[in-house]
Amino acid sequence: MLEKYKEIIDEALLKYLDSLPSYTIYDPIKYMVNLGGKRFRSSLTLLASDLYGGNPNLAIKEAMAVELFHNFTLVHDDIMDQATLRRGQQTVHEKWSTNDAILSGDLLYALVNQILIESQSLNQSIHSVFHKTAIEVCEGQSLDMIFEEKNEVSEEEYLKMIKLKTAVLVACALKMGAMVGGATETDAQFLYNFGINLGIAFQIHDDILDAYPVGEKFGKKIGGDILEKKKTLMFISMLNQLSKKEKIHVNSLYESNDIKDKEIVNQIKVLYDKYGVLDLAIRRKDNYHTEAISNIMQTSLNERSKEVLVMFAENLMNRNY
Amino acid sequence: MLEKYKEIIDEALLKYLDSLPSYTIYDPIKYMVNLGGKRFRSSLTLLASDLYGGNPNLAIKEAMAVELFHNFTLVHDDIMDQATLRRGQQTVHEKWSTNDAILSGDLLYALVNQILIESQSLNQSIHSVFHKTAIEVCEGQSLDMIFEEKNEVSEEEYLKMIKLKTAVLVACALKMGAMVGGATETDAQFLYNFGINLGIAFQIHDDILDAYPVGEKFGKKIGGDILEKKKTLMFISMLNQLSKKEKIHVNSLYESNDIKDKEIVNQIKVLYDKYGVLDLAIRRKDNYHTEAISNIMQTSLNERSKEVLVMFAENLMNRNY
Fold first, then answer.
1. Which of B15, B145, B169, B212 is the most exposed, having the fewest neighbouring CB atoms within 10 Å of its CB?
2. What CATH number does residue B284 fall under?
């Protein structure tokens, strides 16, 4: 459904990458952006601009800034997570080096700022939304790192983390597009709230797909989150319900070096089933989804436009990739 | 001479750091900024604003952005250079971790953007100067990293590198201050050029002090550049003049594990003396300095103001720290 916006963005990004200097430090940037992706955040910027102002192209710089900022965070997150693969290909720090990944990431962020300042719709409040969001995304990544080391994370803490790490950028993408399109402040805020709720639902859906994939998955390990002991809603809910004996068993699973990855995932999923954590995650996701729809309904958009946003949210929640 | 501006900046930074959240990811930022420093870049912003508009405080956000951006680059550069000390204290990645240094650096850069957008003198061209500079600083750091691995670096390449890595931020600091103060475009450009020439002279002076320190030095190793085989003007000039036999000797100095650091520095400095590289470096520095003064003379500033800038440049070139 967002296909036409993705095309606009891919074309603009391609043209932009071509315009960059040939210094070697730009190579990792070109590589990373060319790895592709759904461009879903930036498509939302164009969609919102389209719905409010009838012209997606007006918000192209904002959309590019959102997409490239997202890519910047991925380059640095991959270093911090010691990830070797991204979209089935080598991560930047693997293909080049950690130093190159740090510096090309910094450079990419600097380019983002330049793109944003070149926007036709130079508007202090649009830029404020973006820069505040960038700060929050860093805070979210920090919480994510802290939670990895922490034994106990509450559901509330987890939700706060994914709100900052993921949802605020989705919300920012929508709000910037709406503002460029000429939405009222009230409507722009409804779009922002829609993005927050949608982004949280999106992340919970991602977590579910990681443990319960549908069909073949590309470039990702099944149960990767479980193996990383990632404190997702499901993992947290399981931990909270384990008996003493099961807790010891779970700890031994992670401490042992003899147990195969597949076996760890299977055993944890037995406990997931026992404690109904999938149902809980789906319930939470549905709640955020419902909340997101209600945000749309409160806007002053016409019925057709509301329907577009609702359909988009449905599609996102039914994806199996 | 810039003492009064440094005081304004230190006070503003202190107040700003106090206003930041207490999340742990802000701790490295507070630590780094509190390590102090000459605040010379940001003082130049206030000075330029003062000379043109009569009010340094107008440019306080721009000055803070310059100073904090500089700190951001130091945090990431220290990771890349595997530096353990900064201003005689542990570097961020040593005190915390590489991940914390990457992420708190990113966060600091995001904060810089927020500060800049909050400036009263919201002006697209001022921001463009800043973001373009940020890009160039990354390019300069990239060249610096490449030159470390490269056996032959020309004087021209070295000068391009320090221009990007160091001088453009000095130039940007001056130009932004001038623009906020209301300078004409022509004058703002003269100040920019002054900054470029001053910045290059500043870096050459730094290189000289590293090999030929005056008095006691704090937190830095004497001849640190020589030990890192840094391709400074002096090192490049020496390499270009070595006999075949001396080349072999120099290579053996760096390849041996038995020779003490002090001995390496001494032996390289014997060759520095033989080939008069200190004189060459001083000559180059003086040329850039003279060029910088001529940039000032071309501005429309009154004689008193010109004198202030000339005196400032003199002080900077006569410092022994």
1. B15
2. 1.10.600.10
